[in-house]
Amino acid sequence: MNPRTRQQLMGVSTATLCTALFKRGLLRQFVQDVRPLNPALPNMVGEAYTLRYMPAREDLNTLDVFKDREHPQRKAVEQCPPGAVLVIDSRKDARAASAGSILVSRLMMRGVAGVVTDGGFRDSPEIARLPFPAYHQRPAAPTNLTLHQAIDINVPIGCGDAPVWPGDVIVGDGEGVVVIPAHLADEVAAEAVEMTAFEDFVQQQVMAGRSILGLYPPTDEQSRADFAAWRQQHGR
Amino acid sequence: MNPRTRQQLMGVSTATLCTALFKRGLLRQFVQDVRPLNPALPNMVGEAYTLRYMPAREDLNTLDVFKDREHPQRKAVEQCPPGAVLVIDSRKDARAASAGSILVSRLMMRGVAGVVTDGGFRDSPEIARLPFPAYHQRPAAPTNLTLHQAIDINVPIGCGDAPVWPGDVIVGDGEGVVVIPAHLADEVAAEAVEMTAFEDFVQQQVMAGRSILGLYPPTDEQSRADFAAWRQQHGR
Amino acid sequence: MNPRTRQQLMGVSTATLCTALFKRGLLRQFVQDVRPLNPALPNMVGEAYTLRYMPAREDLNTLDVFKDREHPQRKAVEQCPPGAVLVIDSRKDARAASAGSILVSRLMMRGVAGVVTDGGFRDSPEIARLPFPAYHQRPAAPTNLTLHQAIDINVPIGCGDAPVWPGDVIVGDGEGVVVIPAHLADEVAAEAVEMTAFEDFVQQQVMAGRSILGLYPPTDEQSRADFAAWRQQHGR
Amino acid sequence: MNPRTRQQLMGVSTATLCTALFKRGLLRQFVQDVRPLNPALPNMVGEAYTLRYMPAREDLNTLDVFKDREHPQRKAVEQCPPGAVLVIDSRKDARAASAGSILVSRLMMRGVAGVVTDGGFRDSPEIARLPFPAYHQRPAAPTNLTLHQAIDINVPIGCGDAPVWPGDVIVGDGEGVVVIPAHLADEVAAEAVEMTAFEDFVQQQVMAGRSILGLYPPTDEQSRADFAAWRQQHGR
Amino acid sequence: MNPRTRQQLMGVSTATLCTALFKRGLLRQFVQDVRPLNPALPNMVGEAYTLRYMPAREDLNTLDVFKDREHPQRKAVEQCPPGAVLVIDSRKDARAASAGSILVSRLMMRGVAGVVTDGGFRDSPEIARLPFPAYHQRPAAPTNLTLHQAIDINVPIGCGDAPVWPGDVIVGDGEGVVVIPAHLADEVAAEAVEMTAFEDFVQQQVMAGRSILGLYPPTDEQSRADFAAWRQQHGR
Amino acid sequence: MNPRTRQQLMGVSTATLCTALFKRGLLRQFVQDVRPLNPALPNMVGEAYTLRYMPAREDLNTLDVFKDREHPQRKAVEQCPPGAVLVIDSRKDARAASAGSILVSRLMMRGVAGVVTDGGFRDSPEIARLPFPAYHQRPAAPTNLTLHQAIDINVPIGCGDAPVWPGDVIVGDGEGVVVIPAHLADEVAAEAVEMTAFEDFVQQQVMAGRSILGLYPPTDEQSRADFAAWRQQHGR
Questions:
Q1: Cβ of C142 and B219 within 8 Å?
Q2: Which of F55, F59, A30, F144 is nearest to B147 (CA)?
């Protein structure tokens, strides 16, 4: 990812990004029903590296399988590139874990940017204390073997009903996670920065008592003039 | 609303109010599955002013629609009376936002008492920091245009499976939101104050080690006598 | 319960316990979709004492029923043994309360170890402030009479899709609640202590930058040697 | 059950019965989300004999358990009284069977009046061919041991969110199943016969082109006169 | 509606119409999760006349309300224009009825084209026997008063998550129901007739053993030539 | 597949197969919540050939994509081997179609044994008339492009929460669909034939009035003797 794009995405919200994507006809890029374990962290930004789970068949999912260094869950944790986000397709099923604190810690130490599952994490209180962005549906103490079998690494997946292609740019904030198609990342990031400036201006105006009519959107000439002045004044 | 009623409702819980309504045969007045974005705020009390969403048809919900000052969402935000609560029927669908921080800030600045949706808010971390009661199901970054079209202002609606008539009295606390039919507000508020006094008495007794049998409800004569004494002592 | 077992279970996680149960072919012992009202408390440990709700028929569930000292809900609260956990089968229905702060306070004062429902509690903000472990699905202000009728005390039940037999050992932490069959409690507790030592070792190694391959599980000879040294060093 | 009551209930619909119960303040007596396997059969009428399932723990639910003649599922099938309806609380979980064609056939041969589960039956195509009323949510091929453990016979239960007390009168038709509290069965049956006569009259009038206004309900004097004449004419 | 449009829509499928709408960027016009009570009837075609339900408050929904000739449910039944389809927004809640056989019969006798609810009908076996298209989610014996209050006639609504505006053209077949925006009805109908001709041609070819590659869609020149010949031959 | 195994599986039920799998510790092989479009057909038996859908991104799913002969949906239809069953992972989402009658007809003409999706088919009335086994959740008129993108052919998938590996043996009957792991197919088929003989014997006995106690399972010596005689008599 363009470093400038990464930097820009650190400063915008998933809500703003969703609107930028909406303008481009992309309406399903928000990962539904996931939340940050630690909502106080800075934004999570990185390219998607994916892991796909399928339903676990009992005979193929004994504890012994982890002795295999090629087990896709463990391999994904060791191979997810630094700066990327590991996105896990758990079929929206949080009855068993997608991963636990040890694997998540390993991702953090390896320089990975964050982790997202549409299922749940185990050891969630420990994960919540790490300075590392993690998003899930709800806590799930049972080992993944209980219901999930890791089967594919870095293929296109669904996560929380959003399409995720390897290399897509993933952004998370205190609200949730959005998926930006790779080829749109630069333009969407730049546009979101612009939109954020305007929204910050509007928010200040509203907090000062101004009506939203004519201001948001700025259909009044005065609103546009005021915004221009504000930008100059605030260097944005 | 009677100012005394408003003041009384600031000091009672939604749980107590639900019981007072239960006594009157009203069993569905609690808005199901919504929670406060900021659970530390005082109670929210106000008369319902409603906004109804319907499913969005794509051609009628481009970003341009907000240029129309008559757009019902924007109009509702500018017209909801000070002291009222804006209650939004989002068909319990939190996959797209009901509103965001700018509109919610505007409601706050206009003196509105609070906002409730059975869908979700976007910019939820910002909204959670406002000194303004807001209740939703879960965060929802996508713009409302993605799935919702504002269609009616101040008509009877459903919110979280509860019936909401314009003018009904809405009360929210750290637990959730309850809808009091307008004609019952005064008597229910007064009764809830009485019930709260008794519950506070019972809670103190229980924390002092007393059994609930004969005390809650006060089937023992002694319990009733003790409560009478407690009231006198505490001036309640 | 063996006091040593109780003490051991105070120091292990529900995630570790789920894995110990998984090894024994028990895959459904985690109570699905419940969470602590106060996630900062120490573990909850106690033997299950159960309460079963059925759907409420309106004529049998007026407020008067609580005048009956034999009402199963009130009786369960007064009879649940100190040190036990009251586990309530609310049919996963949180539209009405399973109990409120007065009953939960009474349980606490009686020395009960905690309370779990797969429905919801009312007065949840008050309960969250008690130094007493309570787990539910979500807040529910309406009185239990609205939808639930207490019908059986200390029979086998389901709670959050987990089977709960009276006397089973219930453990809760910041993640959720697990049910350990009574006859397995001692061996599972002992094994979980061992597993926890290993997980703590692994976590430290991972935080120091070590790969999980060969370490977790410890398929490398070196990992096993390092762990043996670590145990000696840390007296575990 | 009064034989006259049984006979009356053979000729009225669950819809009419629900309205008669609604008049008495009972709004939750319809078993939600169950359907007849064979919708062409006559009404099912009988007193409730209940079976309660709890979630199955794996070690307690091997195929061997059926060797025990006291296993509650098998015992319920052999002990459910002729003329009664076996009502099964399967926690609305149709992922595993509540029973199969052999047990259902045995119920039929024993003179039982019908069987209802809020889960699913296995061998459902075979059951659908029996001249025996059976109601479920959807087919479920896996044996009950997979997820359900039979635990209690003839206790009060929930079935499809309806309260079912042993001895309540169960009526099923092509639409579904309703639960009539035992003490109301006679009066509700009698009233439903009256209501059915009126509904039949109205239906004929409507099919002849008459408006429902003033007719249904019969607020017009003429409607009441016409109905009186119709009753005389049709001997009802 | 243009009579030619109506006639055309009698001969095309909801699946084909959904594709014609998809081409125009309209992806949510299929009414989700409703089915015909009698799947053997011809297509249902008519303009939408709507009825909106809200959650019922108990004190406003006694049986007496039907004595009011202005009750919106009864009024809608008497006022829905001949040739129109009555579309009911029941908030996807089939726990109580949207209407029963008497009202549906009255609609039929009045020349209405059909009825759709995203809830359920009572007396569903009787409705299924009428030569009148009716679509619902599942049978629901309890009277609508149990949970639903009719509140608005002919306003824009949601039905099965589809947006329905009064005057939109509603088409139902054995598969389900689709909503065509009024201004698109003529062109979509005409296009669907064309598409149906091509699909019938393709279906014949496929049943004769031809591959779909190059045929569906007709990327091969030969496919287009064959279709031209087929049209001429069949006069379509 | 062994032709004898195929033949055996044509004569046993999914319920019996589920029990045979249960004995081997496999509890999740039944495809949840799918049903036959035509329940009157003979069993469906074949090896799994899979198709995986992911959520559709709008820009990648225009109608033009079908012009690509390599589109995975069309390719799967042309390449699924005769005698195999096409099993589609539609993420249990039936809001848009998995396939329609033309593709299903092509599968039939190519000698494929059947098709299963955990989503829905469009043109479902037409598919229901084909002499070809097809299973889905419910009808879905919208084209798959609306929500689904075909992404992988013949990889391990989930279908209705069951794990499906390419080559697993799929069996469908009037009740639903079960997945037999490839390596178990021969032994499970043989055992199911034996079990079916016993179940047929028991069913006859029960229909003749015999109790299930001691008979099912055959814990009585007499039952085993009677079965032996029955087998000889019926040549099974």
A1: no
A2: A30
